[in-house]
Amino acid sequence: MTRRALVVTHTGREDAGIATDEAVAELEAVGIEPVHEIDWADGIDGLEFAVVLGGDGTLLRAAEITRGTGIPLLGINLGHVGFLAESERDHIGAAVRRLAAGDYEVDERGTLDVRTLLPGDGAPIIGWAVNEATVEKRERAKMVEVAIEVDGRPLSSFGCDGVVMATATGSTAHAFSAGGPVVWPDVDAMMLVPLSAHALFARPLVVGPGSVLAVELLTRTGSAGVLTCDGRRQTDLPAGTRVEVRKGAVPVRLARMTSAPFTDRLVSKFDLPVIGWRGRAANRRRTARGHEG
Predict the structure, then answer these.
(1) Which of 16, 63, 150, 214 matches a 20 to 30 Å C-alpha distance to 242?
(2) What domain range is 186 assigned to?
(3) Catalytic residue ranges
């Protein structure tokens, strides 16, 4: 049986072509047939995994392409942060060989199911997201007036630039830049983060996996907006639209090759200052000296 792997590449980076050629050569060297993204539409079956060369945006595109297949995605970072990536540009060969040998673990990340109810009696528009679903104002010069609901009960209403509803994975993306909390990926939770809200109570919220978040565009001001899922898929929202977000039914599966804790990833990706940290061993020594005294 032929072994196959999907290859998804950033289309706007100058060095992406060279990196892709290297990944393809490594796949062929270990007996795996590379299937390029352009061929995926032909319905090729039997893919073992996907090699994703680019940044987080490319990995989100790969998640969209492979949704529902269950194949793990390995991100190889060609950009700056690449928070979802597992490997760097210089380690393409080693990463591909480990994938081929099955030397990796799979990290399942939660997603969002997004249901949009437009005014009238039309059928709901069904969407999804890995990182976040964002309701934002359509016109630059105007705020959007929204009402926020949690678990079927109204919480608050205000004018704002928008509202971000995110997964734990998405807590380091748009929600983070809006002032939301960083949530460890093993926390089964969703967040709601208002964007530049004109209100006394417009704090980020963290809710459990069974909750349902909803944002309604109020009709009294004729507010119009736009829904964006993962920065990729957009839906125009006239006044009176309701957007409901709940825990997704289909997770995204990421290939992981290191057991380093999430704290280390935060420090590395955000270049956080940890100079002066002495750690647990130093604390034990200090405690022992105190007992001796």
Answers:
(1) 63
(2) 112-247
(3) 56
